[in-house]
Design brief:
The chain is mainly β. The protein has a single domain, classed as Beta Barrel (Acetoacetate decarboxylase-like). Helix content is 2%, strand content 57%.
């Protein structure tokens, strides 16, 4: 399995074989859209805990990004015993990071807006918000498909994230991924994601792909606004219509 530089994916009912004494904690199947940005370096660095630094990818469709926004619409969720859990909708903000002087690296989650039941979450950083998600896909008689999405998250503390996007759908790539995701609030804590996903990169400044016809992004809030001050650059947009994930905690 290869590491993924963006957060997002699906889930299966039976847990995959855990390595060592890892603890399986649950699984989920989602529809996701992932946006990556080159935000002000100083603002991004302030979101990382002491002893950590940015670790932007040097290649690939998200090359050079230092801020990720993962939009999540969960379809089904199960706990470790396979019992159903209420799905949530969310907008997660994260940074590719590594611990200074070590090989420890992954995705660092520092905040996010979640519908009922999703906050504060396993990482202890999410804020409860009202969520609205709309998606529409149209396919013409020639087989060409276009998608329109609206994501809206509004919290009582004034934080909000709104994304509207329209794009032409392309060929979907299927991958299996393993990733470590850390918490900015408690950086020694991380979860291991093993997932399979189908992804369609609809915009990438690194590869020259651009099938996005319209996009609007608005973001407010104490932790969010400094990263979206107007100088941020959109690096990529990835549609993930199918994401299946199993979640583990590392062994002691």
């Amino acid at each position: 399995m290869r590491a993924l530089t963006i957060v997002g994916v699906l889930l299966s009912v039976q847990p995959a074989f855990a390595q060592g004494n890892e603890k399986f904690t649950g699984s989920n199947v989602d529809v996701r859209t992932v946006l990556t940005f080159k935000a002000p370096d100083a603002a991004a660095a302030k979101m990382l805990p002491e002893g950590w630094e940015g670790n932007s990818p040097a290649s690939g469709p998200t090359q050079g990004f230092n801020l990720g926004l993962t939009l999540i619409d969960q379809v089904t969720v199960q706990d470790a015993e396979g019992k159903p859990v209420t799905p949530f909708r969310g907008a997660v903000l994260n940074i590719p990071a590594r611990k200074k002087g070590s090989e420890m690296a992954g995705t660092m989650v520092f905040t996010g807006l979640m519908s009922a039941g999703g906050a504060p979450g396993a990482y202890g950083v999410y804020v409860s918000a009202k969520a609205k998600v709309e998606r529409e896909v149209k396919t013409d008689s020639d087989g060409a498909s276009r998608a329109e999405e609206e994501w809206e998250f509004k919290a009582d503390n004034g934080s909000s994230i709104e994304v509207k996007i329209e794009y032409a759908r392309g060929t979907v790539t299927r991958n299996k991924v393993e990733a470590r995701v850390f918490s900015a609030a408690k950086p020694d804590f991380y979860r291991i994601y093993r997932f399979e996903l189908a992804s369609d990169v609809v915009r990438s400044t690194a590869t020259g792909v651009d099938r996005v016809s319209k996009i609007s992004i608005k973001a407010t809030g104490e932790k969010i606004a400094p990263l979206f001050d107007g100088s941020q650059q959109l690096i990529s947009v990835t549609s993930i219509p199918w994401y299946s994930r199993q979640v583990y905690l590392p062994g002691s």
